[in-house]
Amino acid sequence: MNHPVHPNDSSGATPEDLEKFVNLWFAVAVIGLFVFACFYTLKVAVDLFLPIVLAGFLGFLLTPVTRWLKKIGLSSFWAPLLGTLGFLTILICLFAALCVSLARFEPDFPRYLDHIQERLTPILQAVQKSSPSIDRLGAWLNPGNILQVSIRGPSLVEMALKNAPKFLAILVIVHVLAFFLLLYGARLLKKLVDMIPGVSEKQNVVEIATEIEQTAARYFTSVTLINAGLG
Question: What is the CA radius of gyration of the chain?
């Protein structure tokens, strides 16, 4: 006589366990789709999020400078304004110095090319000796005459001139956002602390925010100085 088989007789799984398993995989799938959607949104809206991220980095970088300017007597408005304008001036000066260096390097460029060509002559001669064998191998693999078409892309100068307005716009937007972040960052933190109940919780939030700000400021300042010295 055949007896009815229950779900928990063979594998020990009950309908409730099966339902939990399905719900777990459904939640994992939804979270995965949400993460992919976030990355796709960031890719599409890179022109929007990139200035915001750069402004946050610049705000952390200029926080010690703004505090020092406030200590010497500047107001809460002029300190971040002078800091952002000073950093923008430094960037413009570095760009101008780079342009001047390239202009001075241009007359000596043919001499450097001759020097590079002299260094590469043994390698080029070795390649030319083996080129007939390579040509015969290519003719054996691809019989017949194949028309080769070379596509010339835009030059470096053309690309620089094409992207210059976009670069300048991003530079201005980043500095404006950094200015407002430095100007109203303390007020936003104060309002956030006022929303938290309890004195000890408020003190913990202030200590954590201060530690994060100081650590990020030291990190970005050190990285910027290292990159500036390397440049």
Answer: 31
